[in-house]
Amino acid sequence: MSPSRLRIPRRVTHRSRSVAPWLLAASDALTVLLATLVALAFRNVVPGFQDPIQVNYSVSLLWPLAVVIWIACLFSAGAYSDKNLGAGTDEYARVVHSSLMAAAFIGICCYLTRFDLSRGFYILLFAFGTPLLVLTRWMVRRGIHILRRRNWLTRRVVLAGNPQNIQEILTVARREAWLGYYIVGAILPEGTQRGELDLPVLGTIGETIDIVGQRDIDIVIFADGSFPSSRGFRRMAWALESHRAQMVVAPALTDIASQRIQVRPVAGIPLVLVEPPTTQQAGRWAKRTFDIVVASLILLAISPIMIGTAVAIWLDDHGPVIFKQVRVGKNGEHFECLKFRSMVTNAEEILKSLQNQGPNAVMFKMENDPRITKVGHFIRRFSIDELPQLWNVVRGDMSLVGPRPALPKEVAQYAPHVNRRLEVRPGLTGLWQVSGRSNLSWDDTVRLDLYYVDNWSMTQDLTILAMTLKAVLASDGAY
Question: Hey, which residues does 219 pair with through a beta bridge?
Fold first, then answer.
């Protein structure tokens, strides 16, 4: 995208940029009020906690105060700080933490003052309200992301540093439009050539303050190469202190989860500690146990769908129902990956004539593939063809979540660093699926797989499984 083709946001004003915290505050207030009303209505339903008649008056006094205390705890925990909104799990963690603070504060105050607190109301209020708050936050976040993709609620950003580092950040900002970063231009060190930088150059590092004021900049992102010494960063922070623009430093740490990064100041120097990759943890008993239990339960639940699919495939052309293909698993071991057959029986012969039409030299994928049967189009659209792989998960060939299972001929073309994706079991789903599936380029597929391998966590697995359902129903990139 050339500088002349950059999309100009339809609305980039201070008011629109600051609307997100107020929108969240309003939605939280309504959510807490709803939780309070539910607790009031059903407080006597909680077994063993029915209230005596004289408690009714105390409940009528407490519930308005409970709403105020809960919202106050959300504010104090930074739940409405702009820097904590829109990305990552920190926003949800703050909501849960502030809810626990509110519960503890109300409980302790009632105990110390001997206030006749309705136990049913207290339990229902936080047991129902806390997950409802998290759900509301998630829904509002989705709405904000949609608005940002349409160039609303955006923030004006300039990128500073060496052209190569700026281009890397620019690629991410354009790909992840939900961040709401409208990149105005680039600022380069004195005497640096722009090269192939796909951004207008606004000036040099020394002119940053003037550019921020003239261009109404919200964020200045300094990449590597912005200053020759740490003294330059410190002076720039001083200079920006009197401006509204936020200073952000983008170190040369890409595709590393925040859980593995810790900033520790030592003698005035902020050292960034990076924990070792979590690759080995992805193969331990907890993940394996989770795979066996969940895959077995899913197999039992969807057995009618699998039987119906098998019958439909056989009736279509009386060919084999299951397609077995050799794939490469953990540590490079080969296994038979199971799928419902979605192609004609002579698909491999037809493939030779189509090989050169693929958009990718390593991983062959083709939209409107003529080898796919009528039944195959349907089961591929909703990923039904992959359901037999649950048996691969039970057997230990695969995991529920992991890198895409690769063909031997694909692995033969791997660059040395790509082989790292073979250090864990391949997955029935993964970051590659919830991020676009076949619409992804080969480089993006590798990047996502390596990120998963290096930054595995059970929380991430659960998140990917939840996102998979959305990706499957949307049928995005499935062909």
Answer: 157, 246
